[in-house]
Amino acid sequence: MNANDHQQKPKDEEVDLGGLFMLIGNGFKKLFNFIGGLFVSLFNFLIIVLLFIRHHFIVLILSLIIGGVLGFYSEDGKKSYAATMVIKPNLNSARQLYNNVAYFNDLAAQKEFSTLSVIFNLSNEEAKSLATFTIEPIISYSLNVEAYNDFVRYSDTTTVKQVEFKDFVKNQIKYDYKFHEIKVEANNNKVFSKLKAGLIASFYNNDYLVSLKNAKALNIETDEKRTNKNLEQADSLRQVYNKVLLLEANKPFSGTNIDMAQGKDKRNKELELFNTQDLYRDKLIAI
Question: How high is the pLDDT of residue 264?
Fold first, then answer.
């Protein structure tokens, strides 16, 4: 029994290994057949494409040429141009400026070209070329320093002590800056020269800004008249004072210390009058 068992076991192992190698061989055979079939399919597809190109070569070439020409002119017609304009708002009108630019941009986005053509005095085709309107403040260290110096000049000492330069800059909002840049994008570069007048007119047509401008003009006129009157009075007073000094200078000199002190005091008063005249002249120049 034992001898037969030992003989049967090697035979079973040989059968198992043979079956395994057969399975592996069949697997590789299927893999190679699949790869070969894939290459054959790709080759057949390539042959079909080449045959199609051969039979329709002229039509394909003409289609490519026509498509290229149409694409070129289509892209050329959609070229985008941009122009910028630097604005310095007066009368604290920066917020109104931003509102106006946002309004123009909304009109362009909503294709309200008839309204844009009226605002900027453009033809309908020119108005259609307008794409976007944007605005942002111009920020630089030197402009921040200039703004802070103005803040110090026109603020009381207590306020200035409480606000340092870095805090002043940090608390600035876009409406506080002195200069702003408006950017307009369009596919017609000939419309930009016509936009400036429309932007300016949008301010002149604003009732609130017009009233502020008129009030400021009236204040300037009143201030100018008052300053001229003060300057005339100071000039007249100085002439009278010079005559008095001339008359006193012709009197006999007493030679006392009191006279010397009085003379010094008179010269100081004359200098004060001279400085007052200069102050009024500077004020007129500023106006």
Answer: 47
Report the run of H or E that residue 183 belongs to, with start and end.
strand 180-186
**Dihedral over Cα of 238, 243, 247, 250: its sign:** positive
Statement to judge: residues 88 and 189 lie in one domain: yes
Q: Measure the CA–CA gap between 269 and 15, rounded to whole angstroms.
A: 134
Range of the domain at 125: 81-207
pLDDT tens profile 245-279: 677 667 665 444 444 445 445 555 555 655 665 66
**Do residues 254 and 215 make contact, with C-beta atoms less than 8 angstroms apart?**
no
Provide the pLDDT for residue 96: 86
Statement: the pTM of the whole predicted model exceeds 0.85: no
d(CA 106, CA 101): 9
Q: Nearest to residue 79, comparing CAs of 193, 185, 196? A: 185
For residues 30 and 130, membership in a common domain is answered with no
Does residue 231 share a domain with residue 162? Answer: no
CA 19 to chain CA centroid, nearest Å:
80
- pLDDT, one tens digit per residue, over 45-76 is 888 888 877 777 787 777 778 877 776 665 55
Least Cα distance to 178 among 144, 216, 134 occurs for 144
